[in-house]
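Cross-posted from the bioinformatics board.
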Amino acid sequence: MSMDVLIVDDSAAIRKILIRVLQQTELPLGEVVEAADGIEALDRLKQKRFSLIFSDINMPNMDGIQMLSQIRDNAEWSGIPVVMITTEGSQAKVLEAVDLGARGYVRKPFTADQIKEKLAGIF
Amino acid sequence: MTTQEMQAHIVDGVRRAMSDLCSTMLGCEAEPGEVRVVAQPLEESEGVVALIGMAGPWIGTGAILCKPDMACKLAGAMLMSEYAEVDDEVLDAVAEVANMVIGNLKTSLEEMVAPWVLSTPTVIHGASFTTKLGGNHGWTLMPFAIMGGTVLVQVCLLPNVDGRTTPRLDIVGALAR
C-alpha cells in the first residue's frame, strides 16, 4: 500500500528538499502534499488520510507545537507518526514535541541520510 | 557578559553554523574571512539580503548578504537545480540559509542563557541599495568564501535592557540609489 505524506514548513525550499529525499527512499511513496503552516496542515488532514507527517516547529499563523497538540487531540489523526524538522534547538521545545507524541526530531541543516535513518526507525 | 565576549560567541556560533550548513546541505566548504566590527554596515548592496530579528537576554538582528549570482549558486546547491536569475525559489532558499545560520547561532547562544526567539526571515532583493539599521551599534561582519563567491553574515546584538520578548527588525530604510 502506498504512503501519502504531509510536509509542513513555511519554507518552500525545505519542502522541495524533503520531497526529493522521500523519492530517494525505498518507501512505497504515494502522494506528497505540502502545507506552509499548521492551519493549512490541519485543513489537509481533514481532506485526506496520511501515513506520515514532517513538520517544522517555527511557522507563522500556527506553529508545529500547536499543530501537534491538535493532531494528538483528534482520534482520527493521533496515530499518524510526526517527525519534527527544525532549526529550533531548545531543549524545552524538543521535550514539548516529544511529550505531544512526536516520533522523531531532525535538526536543520540535515543530510538525506539523517532523514532516511529517522524513517527507518519508524517503518 | 561583555559586548566583546558576546561578539566572540557570535563569531564562533556563526562559523560552526555555516560550516554545518555547507557540509550537510550545500556540498561545499565555507572558508571564513577576516571578521570586522563596525558601527553601521553601510556598504552599498546589490543582490539579496535576508534579515532575522533575535530577542532574548540580548536583542538585535542577524543578516545574510550575497550578490545575485551567489544567491543563485546557494539555491542551486540546496535544491539541486540551476538558476540563471533570482526568482522566488532563490529568495526562499536564501531565506532558509539565514534561518539555519541564525537559528543555529540562537541554539548555541541558548547553551549559555535561554530562552531566545527569532522572527521569520525578511528577504530584500534589488540593485544598488543600502540597508540602514536603527542606531550605531557594534555590527559583527563575517565573510565566508563559498563556491567561488562571498556570503556575508552580519549580526548585531545588544543587552536587552527593556526586557523585550519579541524580536524586531530595526530596519529604518532600504534605500535604492
